[in-house]
Design brief:
Layout: H1 4-11, H2 15-23, H3 30-43, H4 49-56, E1 61-66, H5 74-90, E2 94-99, H6 103-112, E3 118-121, H7 131-135, E4 141-144, E5 154-156, H8 160-173, E6 178-182, H9 186-191, H10 193-209, E7 212-216, H11 227-235, E8 241-245, H12 248-261, E9 270-274, H13 277-280, E10 288-291, H14 294-309, E11 323-325
Parallel strand pairs: 1-2, 1-3, 3-4, 4-5, 6-7, 6-8, 8-9, 9-10
Antiparallel strand pairs: 10-11
Helix pairs in contact: 1-2, 1-3, 5-14, 8-10, 11-12
């Protein structure tokens, strides 16, 4: 078993310096920290979590609470989680995933035993019953999402109203005469504030531009839920339709519907939506998209959590501005 003394020898520092780098009890220069961490990595040294917690009164572990099941949108969540890992590791912390379905019991178990120093919470609902309980845990908490009442907790979120406006503006710019917004299922829209905010923005901005709009809520999050959309598109096949999606699962299904009808985005219909740039690169159609800058959100949120844990002041945060990129799906040459 590798010892702290061996790490100290490899890094050319004292045993106490290794202890301070691990515990954070005393300020150490960044160059020295990097030498010690490099030595730890090369030797495969893993500090004892209990000893480290006793020394620094921290576990150097943060918990990420999120839904973990077959319906989890991995393509949307992965950029957040990987960026959180990067920020945490750079500052000497590890990350543990806490499935949301474990409920507050699982969260209390980890915080009650001082196994995590703070929490990042995803899937925050409009009226989230967990929030008063999270406040009472006595550990720093950062929410990814915005509820109606944050109970004083820091929230990290993109500007959903701006996202909706960007999508509508692009379809209006290319001359769409009617917009179809394929939204969330109604129960999802009603549970999450981001969904209703985006939908409201789409509807309001379409009305402001004088463009007719159909809002389509799939009954199910699968192919069967798109039957009504197919009927809408068939009825308006001769019109200059623009389509907006907010989720990757809806985007994939809409592309399948269009293919089934023999319609091509960028030629027969204009199309834009919200999804990561990396996801667009895997699509068969270059989609004009709004990227929520998930990596930037993750860096801001994780950095804020670690700052609070370490006793630093954190400024009030505003929404993260999304980024729009026009691509072939709105490169229209409508026929007269």
């Amino acid at each position: 078993m590798v010892t702290a003394e061996e790490v100290a020898a490899r890094a050319g520092v004292s045993r106490a310096t290794v202890s301070y780098v691990i515990s954070g009890r005393k300020p150490i220069s960044e160059r020295t920290k990097q030498r010690v961490r490099k030595a730890m990595e090369e030797l495969g040294y893993v500090p004892n979590a209990n000893a480290r917690a006793l020394a620094g009164r921290r576990s150097y572990m943060i918990g990420v609470v999120t839904t973990v099941d077959a319906r989890m949108p991995v393509d949307e969540f992965a950029p957040y989680f990987l960026s959180i890992l990067d920020v945490a590791h750079a500052r000497g912390y590890e990350v543990v995933l806490i499935p949301k379905d474990e409920g507050m019991g699982g969260v209390r178990r980890l915080t009650g035993q001082s196994l995590v120093d703070g929490l990042i919470v995803f899937d925050v609902e409009r009226r989230d019953e967990r929030l008063p309980q999270l406040v009472q845990l006595g550990v720093p908490v950062v929410l990814f999402g915005t509820p109606e009442d944050s109970h004083g907790l820091i929230c990290v979120d993109p500007d959903h109203r701006c996202e909706g406006r960007m999508c509508v503006d692009e379809l209006v710019r290319v001359g769409s005469q009617r917009i179809i917004y394929v939204g969330d299922r109604v129960p999802v829209r009603d549970r999450f504030l981001f969904s209703s905010r985006f939908e409201r923005s789409v509807v309001d901005n379409a009305a402001k531009a004088g463009v007719a709009i159909d809002v389509y809520h799939p009954a199910t999050a699968d192919w069967r839920g798109m039957d009504g959309l197919k009927s809408l598109l068939v009825e308006g096949v001769a019109a200059r339709y623009g389509i907006i999606t907010r989720t990757t699962w809806a985007l994939d299904l809409v592309l399948d519907v269009l293919k089934d009808l023999g319609l091509m985005p960028g030629y027969d219909v204009a199309m834009t939506g919200v999804c990561p740039d990396d996801y667009v690169n895997r699509l068969r159609v270059p989609l004009s998209n709004v990227d929520q800058r998930s990596q930037e959100q993750a860096k801001i949120g994780a950095g804020a959590l670690l700052d609070i844990i370490e006793g630093k002041r954190v400024a009030v945060m505003g929404p993260v501005s999304p980024a729009f990129t026009a691509r072939a799906s709105t490169d229209m040459l409508w026929t007269a």
